[in-house]
Design a protein that fits this description.
The complex is a heterodimer of chains A (444) and B (449). Chain A is mainly beta and 444 residues long. Chain A has three helices and 43 strands. The radius of gyration of chain B is 22 Å and the shape is globular. Classes of the chains: A mainly beta (444), B mainly alpha (449).
Chain lengths: 444, 449
């Protein structure tokens, strides 16, 4: 997030956009997007010529639209640096457009616009049925007959994707078995081809890529930079690189444990299936020796010392395991969005039980349940946990199990202030899109 | 009954003359040791009391025979469900896995192409033994041996690469949605197919053939969703396809990968529920088999078949029709959503809400005959088409009987049923038109101002 500590954290509420003016001006408005600092609201709209463009409004400012109208625009997103980007088509040529300026390179189609944490943009691209990746408007030198699963490296310098490295036609099932897929990093494929490749992921230092592969219908491995583990498994889920070091300062803004920097340890972990049960493996060896009915979405604490994962301890019961110790509390329907506190001492997740959603922290569930709940967010000191929730058709913020006053018709995820004393709420109330900083003193 | 000559033709299907490259080349690579090893692994590690009880309990009474449209159509005892078990798992267990490549070839033909896994026979068995399960174990063994009909194996490969059934590339999917959105805007100004909308009430998912061959169904669904003023979305990224031929080839690892992606696509968007298009096998995979393989007793998000959704639209008066569909219709009950989910009365509610003249097929509801395409049989492709259509002879008789009562249109709320019935109608000269519920509703829908 750009200049997080420099944002306006003064307690108060202001209108960022008067949406009644939007409705008067535009016959067609798509979903609203809001910048991370809450100072700008935008949406794809149709102008008076019924062309697609983007409308933006800031506090006290008139509506602005991008100068150009397009045949089509989609995938509007504020990046982590708060630049506003969309994929736009002008006479059937697709380009990335950022803050109204289009990239030079045009393609027959663009999709999967992806950002690194600093806002570098990469996008999957197709021209004349050949597939490539554009990273910051620079295309790969090589093109492929098929490409999917593109990811951008943490430093924004590299992109990787699953590619069809040996063109194979439909119905060529025996050629398929010889291995026609690989990972391309900046357009260069790994030396080895596989029957299938899934889920490429970069190491924290951006120098390595791991992926799930299978070499036959039943031989699954984790491959790191094209080399497979020594051990075969009957199935695997997505791998992750271990972080070695990360400072507190680096975790101050984001509590997403996967945003690693300064990682120098290239050990890789992945859920693996063996004998009908799931385990966590590290560099090809079973690391968590307890068998689970299911195990996925494992993640590291920011300092890399602890691993947590979503597990099913018995058929139909789901929970979180931290360092191979599952919570006693289990849930029937679903567990998702596990997250460590910035200090790595706490783990939270979302759960669904009997059709209702809830939040659990360190093995204890909040008392209240909701119709829907979004990704949990720890405060920077790890003491508070906030979520955006939906209840009876309206959106609210809940902190540490209590629902705050203030009802919204639409809302972005809340953000804690750097000193944890206040919270930024960005949401729509009636025709007004508001930016509000509330004090948390006395509330929690 | 205006039955054609072909329906009465008792010519037997001779599976031995059918050559399939996937099966033939597959068995050429087998050794007795490999066969025995795979069989032991599957039987010992992946099955248990269920298989043993089914195989040991069968009294060979033959009551299941009348439950099987293969037997009824072809009048050959080898197509009795009990006989299919006898020719496959029974023999394998008796010989403790010491069977020949030629045996595996015949077993693969039976398991993949002579059983639609429709589960009708289970209703006729005094013990309720599920032969479809036994056939699925046989398929699992064949899959692990690499002996799978070429066309369905290719479809499973597509699932593994593109995460959809039809090799639809990521960009082709999105482009198709945008194209259908634009087309549908001629019917409703500013109509949208909202992509990746968070917090929608409905995550609408379809099967691979819709963007590939039947894009008008997406168009129609978009018009219906917009007319009902639904808060809905479709995903732009893989995870949109709810279908699952891996479930039918025996590639359960890929089935799990597909179902996980589908569920997580919907749940990551914080959708309230998944509404699925008119497909039967996909529903079986999402609602029953795939979710349980992953560890859920029930799907982690509410899953609603189009029949349930359309019924809800009429019950809650969310859409209006201009007038009822006037041509006489009959209704085909798809196995996976009728025997598998009990949606037959809801389907009739929709027929009654939309059609002026409804003629029941007999037998119907949970006793209805399979279209002969289900269970992945139609996906085994052209080598097996003639045999498949001949096994649909009983279905053809059923259609002719409904036609004799005046039915002109067959409503079949399932893609595979459409494919199978289309072939039967053409082969036997039934001359009836096939429609989805979506076709009917779109045709008579009153569009909002």
């Amino acid at each position: 997030m750009s200049d997080y500590e420099e944002w306006n954290w003064d307690i108060g509420k202001k209108q960022v956009a008067d949406l009644s003016g939007w409705q008067e001006q535009f016959p067609y408005i798509e979903e609203l997007r809001v910048s991370s600092d809450g100072e700008r609201v935008a949406a794809i709209v149709k102008n008076e010529d019924m062309e697609f463009t983007v409308c933006i409004q800031s506090e006290g400012e008139e509506l602005e639209t991008w100068e150009t109208g397009y045949d089509k625009a989609w995938n509007l997103q504020f990046g982590p640096d708060d630049r506003l980007s969309a994929l736009v088509s002008d006479t059937s040529e697709w380009k990335v457009c950022t803050d109204g300026e289009t990239w030079e390179n045009g393609y027959d189609f663009l999709w999967n616009m992806t950002f690194n944490t600093n806002g570098v943009i990469a996008v999957s691209a197709q021209k004349e049925l050949l597939y490539s990746v554009l990273n910051n408007d620079v295309p790969w030198e090589n093109e492929f007959s098929r490409l999917t699963g593109m990811v951008i490296s943490p430093d924004g310098q590299k992109t990787a994707a699953v590619v069809e490295s040996v063109p194979v036609l439909e119905s060529e099932i025996f050629k398929f078995r010889t291995g026609c897929y690989s990972v391309a990093v900046n357009g260069e494929t790994w030396e080895r081809n596989f029957m299938n490749v899934w889920n490429p992921v970069f190491s924290g230092d951006s120098n390595h890529v791991a992926a799930s592969v299978r070499t036959s219908y039943y031989d699954y491995y984790i491959a790191v930079d094209g080399k497979i583990w020594d051990t075969v498994f009957s199935s695997v889920w997505e791998p992750r690189f271990a972080p070695l070091t990360i400072t507190k300062a680096e975790t101050k803004v984001s509590s997403d444990a996967n945003n690693f920097t300064n990682a120098h340890n290239y050990s890789v972990t992945a859920p693996v299936k063996k004998g009908g049960k799931w385990f966590l493996a590290k560099d090809g060896e079973i690391f968590w020796d307890r068998p689970y009915f299911q195990l996925w979405h494992h993640l590291y604490s920011p300092d890399g010392s602890t691993i947590a994962a979503i597990v099913s301890t018995e058929f139909g019961r789901w929970t979180i395991a931290s360092d191979n110790t599952p919570w006693e509390l289990t849930f029937s329907d679903y567990v998702s969005d596990p997250i460590f506190s910035p200090d790595g001492k706490r783990v939270a997740c979302l759960f669904k039980e009997n059709g209702k959603w809830g939040v659990a922290v360190d093995g204890k569930a909040w008392d209240c349940q909701f119709d829907m709940v979004w990704q949990p967010i720890f405060s920077n000191n790890g003491l508070q946990l906030a979520v955006k929730i939906k209840k009876d058709g309206n959106y609210y913020i809940a902190i540490n199990g209590s629902i705050l006053d203030g009802k919204y018709e639409d809302m972005a995820n809340p953000l804690f202030s750097p000193d944890n004393s206040s919270m930024l709420i960005r949401g729509r109330q009636g025709d007004s899109y508001n930016r509000e900083v509330i004090s948390l003193k006395g509330r929690i | 009954m205006s039955e054609s000559k072909t329906v009465n033709d008792n010519k037997k299907t001779e599976s031995k003359k059918i050559e399939d490259q996937g099966i033939q080349k597959g068995i050429e690579q087998l050794t007795p040791e490999r066969i025995e090893s795979v069989i032991r692994q599957v039987i010992n590690d992946e099955t248990g009391a269920r298989l043993k009880v089914y195989v040991d309990t069968c009294l060979h009474c033959g009551l299941c025979s009348k439950g099987c449209h293969f037997f009824l159509s072809l009048k050959d005892p080898k197509f009795s469900p009990a006989a299919k078990v006898k020719q496959t798992l029974w023999e394998i267990m008796r010989k403790k896995g010491k069977v020949s490549p030629e045996f595996i070839k015949e077993a693969a033909l039976i398991a993949y192409t002579q059983c639609n896994m429709c589960k009708r026979c289970a209703m006729y068995c005094p013990f309720g033994l599920d032969v479809a399960y036994v056939m699925s174990v046989m398929r699992r063994i064949c899959y692990k041996l690499g002996v799978v009909p070429l066309y369905i194996q290719d479809t499973a490969h597509s699932h593994s690469v593109a995460m959809n059934q039809m090799w639809v590339k990521d960009d082709e999917w999105i482009d198709t949605l945008m194209w259908q959105e634009e087309e549908a805007q001629d019917a409703m100004e500013n109509l949208r197919i909202p992509l990746d909308k968070e917090g929608a009430d409905i995550f609408y998912s379809v099967i691979g053939p819709e963007p590939k061959f039947r894009a008008q169904l997406i168009f129609q669904a978009a018009v219906i969703m917009n007319a009902a003023k639904e808060n809905w979305t479709m995903p732009s990224m893989p995870g949109w396809d709810n279908s699952d031929m891996c479930m039918f080839t025996g590639d359960y690892e890929m089935m799990e990968r597909l179902k996980r992606l589908h569920f997580e696509s919907a749940l990551n968007l914080r959708a309230k529920r998944i509404v699925m298009g008119e497909c039967g096998h996909a529903f079986r995979s999402v609602y029953d088999v795939g979710n349980r393989a992953l560890g859920w007793r029930m799907p982690p998000i509410e899953v609603v078949h189009s029949i349930e959704y359309f019924n809800e639209l009429f019950e809650q008066k969310k859409i209006k029709i201009r007038k009822k569909f006037e041509r006489p219709v009959t209704l085909h009950d798809p196995c996976n959503i009728v025997r598998g989910r009990g949606l037959h009365e809801m389907a009739r509610n929709i027929v009654n809400a939309t059609c002026a003249n409804f003629i029941e097929m007999t037998p119907n509801r949970e006793h209805n005959y399979c279209c002969s395409a289900g269970g992945g049989v139609i996906n085994c492709g052209p080598p097996f088409k003639n045999a498949r259509v001949e096994s649909g002879k009983e279905k053809a008789k059923q259609l002719f009987a409904a036609k004799a009562k005046g039915a002109e249109v067959v409503i079949a709320p399932c893609h595979n049923c459409h494919g199978g019935l289309e072939d039967i109608i053409h082969h036997y000269g039934v001359e009836m038109e096939l429609k989805f519920f979506g076709d009917i509703i779109y045709e008579i829908l009153e569009l909002p101002e």
